[in-house]
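Researcher: Go.
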Amino acid sequence: MFKDARALDRQRTATSFDRALSGYTKTAESWFDGTVGSVDRRLAQCDRLLHTTRATVARMTISDSSRYLIAGEKLSDDRRVLEGLREGLLTGAKDWTGGTYYE
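Model: Structure:
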């Protein structure tokens, strides 16, 4: 009849995060329209998901937060790539050589 508040929190957080991450991954091949604005929007989505992962990991046990740690690592990688793409668009890709971005 009654559920533990922590269990309800884990369930709500997981459902909300799964929905947001699913939307992010579904648009992985279609979000870019060639503009810096599209990169900025994708970065904002990525940042929101990263914020959720960090906040969730901070309040949950290690065993409950492992999936968020894994997702956070992948999102951090995405963010680095997006930052590089944004920089390339803003600078005319002057630092790109042979299709690879060098910092």
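Model: The first strand starts at residue 96 and ends at 97.
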